Amino acid sequence: MNARSLALAAALALGLVACGDQSVSTSGSTPDSTATTADGQITYSTDPNALLLRIDLSGGFVPVETIFTSLPQMSVYGDGTVITQGPQIAIYPGPAVPNLLVRTLDEEGIETLLQTALDAGLVGPAPDYGQPPIADAPDTVVTINVDGKTYEHRANALGDFGTGDMGLTEAQADSRKALATFVSAATDLATLVGSDHLSAEEPYEITGWRLRATVADSLPTGEPAPTLTPWPVLGLALVSIGECTAVTGDEASAVTAAMQQANQLTYFTEAGVTYQVLARPLLPDESGC
Question: Which residue ranges form the domains of the chain, and what is each CATH number?
Fold first, then answer.
């Protein structure tokens, strides 16, 4: 059954939740159900694995290692779970495991976040965000899943160039300003919704990984020197991982233990071959490569 069918079925079973003036209410919702507006125009899953909103940076002139391991700035799920990237310790080589943090929005917090997206005009098809004359800049991507639909808003070089004219039309500049304002507000949740509607940050428990293992024909030179260590995950041969393999369950726990002992200059050996292993945590809405 697709997301729209689930939303309609749950709405019939639970009844519509009252609200007005395009505000979104989650009152009365239960896990594995949906929440809707009174007029039925906004419906979204409250399942803990259902992605509600994501803010990400994509593209730009970056190496393949960065592309493979990159994670969204923020992911919000139907039950209010919020996963963000925490501050990274300023050392080199840095840890192999990213500092992911998790918090929980309550129902009123979810309402505020969705209302902010509505007010910004993001719950609908994307407008023309234009293209500033900026080379090698990433796209800011905001994805919203409501009413069985996915709305993606993608603007290149939003950042410092989000509100300037940069050869853009007035409509494009206004759209970019609205998107940039929303991103700024959404990524400062404590200010947007109030600390009473947002739990304290905790480390995110990683339950799955995407792995990439490539033969290291040469190792970096200089100091600090790379570290070589035998691959410790039994039953998961590096030679079989290739460009991308997803692991969960006991294998994921073993990978977590291995990566917690590693850093950016750790290389793993197996059967006399040295590999560079890249590891990227799976998020709740992800299941594979």
Answer: 48-197 (3.30.1560.10), 206-281 (no CATH)
